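fyi for ur records
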Amino acid sequence: MNWYLKKAGSETLYGPVDETKLEAWAADGRVAPDDLVSPDRRQWKPAPQVPALNMEWVVSLAGGGQFGPLHALALREFVRGGELRPEATIRSSKSGRTTTIADLLAPAPESAAKEREAQVQVEAARKAAGEAEARARQAAAELKTLQEQLARAAQERDQARQHAEEADTQVREWKDKAARAEASAKTLAEKLAAAQGDAKEAAARSTAELKAAQGNAKEAVARSAAELKAAQDLATQAAAEATALREQLTRTRQEKDQALQKAEQAAAAAPEAEKRAAQAEKGAAEARETMQRQAGELQKAAEQLATARAEIQKWKTHSQRARVAAEAEKAQQAAKAQSAEASAMVPREQLEEAQRRIAHLERSYKQAMQTMNRSLAARVGESQATPPEQLRRRDIA
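which gave:
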C-alpha cells in the first residue's frame, strides 16, 4: 500500500511511498508525532496510529513535559543530535513498559546481527528511493523539454497565422485598388464618350451654319439679279423713276455686300469647327492612352494578387511541416519512455505510476496539437510530490 505524508500545520505533501519507505522516514526522525498520513489523500490519521511505523515510545522531557510517540531508532538520531540525553526516561504506548533510551538502544548479542541486517535493508531502501527520485526528476525534465517544444510549435503557428492575416489584408487592399482603378477607367470611358458626342454635335452645328450661310448668299444673289433686271426694265419705261431706281440699286448692292460678308464669316468659321473636331480627336486619343495605362496597372495588381496567394500557400505548407515535426518528436519521446521502462528495474507501483504519467502526457500532447490556439497548461496526473531531501527532522529543544 502506498502512503502520503502531510506535515503538521502545513499543506505540503510527501509521497506516495510504500510502508517500508515511510517506516524508514519514521526511523530517521523525519516523521513527527503530530504528522498525518493517508493512503488516498482523503482520510487522514496521525502517523503513530499506523502499526507498521512502530512509533510507540514517549519521551519524558527534563522540564516535565512529554514528546512522542516516536520510533525507537528515531530516539538514537535525537541522542546523536544532542536533543535528548541517553538517560532520558521513555515509555511504550503499547505495552506500558518504562525504560531509558540507553537501555532500549543497547543491542543484545543475539539481536546485533538482526540490527545490522535491518540497517542494510534500510540503506538499500534509501538507495532505491534515491534512484526512483532521480528517474522521476529525469521524467520531469523530459516533460519540461516537450512542453518547451510544444510552446515553440504554438509560437510558430501564431506567426504563420499572423503572416496569413497580413497577406489577407494586402489582398483586400489590392482588391480595393483594382476596384478604384476599374471605376476610374469607367469614368474616363464616360468622359470620352461625352467628348466624342460634344465633338460630333459641334461639327454638325458648324456644318448647318455653313449651309445656312451659303443658302442665304444664293438667295441674296438671286434676289439682287431679279431686282436688277426689274430696274433695267423700269429704266426704259420711266426716266423719272431713275433716281429712285439708283437708290434702290444702291440698297440692293449693300444687301449683297452684307450677304457676301456673312458668307465669308461662315467660311472663316469652318476652320474653327475643324480645329474643334481635331481637339476632340486628341482628347479621345489621350483618353485611350489613359485607359491603356489603367489596364496595365490592373494587370500588375492581378500579378501581385497571384504572388500573395502563393505566399499564403507557402505558409500553409510551413504550418503543416511544423505539425508533422511535432508528431515525430512526440513519437521519439514515447520511444525513449519505452526504452527507459525496458531497462529500469523499478518496483511495480513505481512502474505503474510512470505509465500513468506517460499516458497523461500523451493525452496532453494530443489536446495541444488539436487546439493549437491556447497555451499548454499540462498537468501530469497527481500533484508533484516534494523531494524527500526537503523533509527535515523536527527539533525537540
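Helices lie at 19-27, 72-80, 101-105, 112-237, 242-343, 348-371. thats all i got for now
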